What does this fold into?
Amino acid sequence: MEQNTQPAQQKSSSDLNIQKVTRKQNNQKRSIKISSETYKDMSVLKTMENIRFDYEIIQMLIDDYQSRMSEADRRRFTVLRENY
It folds into this structure.
């Protein structure tokens, strides 16, 4: 019997890109319902901040909220988030 002495074939960069896109699409399968007024406010903020995607403005708002939390609230947030 012959042994295969060739190294295992590595994934091409296009294979890796497909995996990244698939993973990214899986992350974007969540949806939230918001009122039309909230959507309008969010759209205005996106324009003001030159942000393209809804998830980016939502993350920016969460980050801003967290930066204003007390130390006790930050710890509480961290614990709740880790156990969610």
